[in-house]
Amino acid sequence: MNLEGKVAVITGSAVRIGRAMALTLADAGVDVCIHYHLSQAAAEQTCNEIRERGRNATRVSANLSDPETAAAVIFEAAMTEFGKVDILINNASVFENKSLTDTTEADWDSHLDINLKSPFFLCQRFAKLLPPRQTGQIVNIVDWRAQRAGKEHLAYRISKAGLVTLTECLALELAPAIQVNAIAPGAILPPPGEDLSYLEQRAQKVPLKRAGSPAEICNTLLYLLRSDFVTGEVLTVAGGEQLTGGLG
Ligand SMILES: NC(=O)c1ccc[n+]([C@@H]2O[C@H](COP(=O)([O-])OP(=O)(O)OC[C@H]3O[C@@H](n4cnc5c(N)ncnc54)[C@H](OP(=O)(O)O)[C@@H]3O)[C@@H](O)[C@H]2O)c1
């Protein structure tokens, strides 16, 4: 896809990796709808930085715990501002370190609603809105943990495994109009509430002996969006951590 003049919706893009992807796409000539939940000031700041790069931006708040309503609100905002959407990036996520014994029903529901059910309804709406004979791209942000068994982050892992399956099913369902791919990051940023020592510890167990950076996720995103013959793929960007399951 030639990215110049395209429009992207990115969930959870006020801060962190989502924000980095939004600015990267703006540099590549894309107008961006910044979805956020609570980070309103940061969303406005990210929009301003996109406008400084000469692209258009709008922001919309929606709680992905209410998936169908949120999908409607997000696409309504993007269509009102831009009149079209070419790219959907499902990035917003919750990430709790809970196992079988301490996962509550509320934990289960929030992970499945935000990390899996919302991407499903956003993809459904995106596909419905794409005019005939136009092409589109969906990129789902998963995690290497989605493809490895493990005892921790159980609801998270299951939600991201579902998102991998959704990626593959929709790549078939929506071809040839829409390509659907996923990026599986490893240790990129410490989870909210953790400091850099979290990443330093993780890095010791990464075969490439370092953490990654948002820029490395952004480069992978650009590769996927510019690759017209790739669909149903999960690209892991984790320094080899997926090979050891985080055990070093
Ligand atoms: N960080 C890493 O090293 C790493 C590693 C592996 C995979 N990943 C994946 O990469 C993606 C980005 O990671 P990240 O660490 O940058 O994400 P993050 O900061 O944990 O979350 C991104 C955004 O999700 C939004 N969000 C959370 N709950 C929401 C809700 N109920 N409704 C709407 N939005 C909600 C938040 O928006 P507001 O701030 O506006 O509330 C948040 O800023 C995620 O899919 C994550 O699973 C990240």
From TrEMBL:
Keywords for this protein: Oxidoreductase
Keyword Oxidoreductase (UniProt): yes
Membrane-crossing residue ranges in chain numbering: none
Record EC number: 1.1.1.100
Pfam families: adh_short_C2
Molecular functions (GO terms): 3-oxoacyl-[acyl-carrier-protein] reductase (NADPH) activity
Taxonomic superkingdom: Bacteria
InterPro entries found in the cross-reference section: NAD(P)-bd_dom_sf, SDR_fam
Family: Belongs to the short-chain dehydrogenases/reductases (SDR) family.
PANTHER family the UniProt entry points to: OXIDOREDUCTASE, SHORT-CHAIN DEHYDROGENASE/REDUCTASE FAMILY (AFU_ORTHOLOGUE AFUA_5G02870), SHORT-CHAIN DEHYDROGENASE_REDUCTASE FAMILY PROTEIN
Protein name (Swiss-Prot/TrEMBL): 3-oxoacyl-[acyl-carrier-protein] reductase FabG
Gene: fabG_6
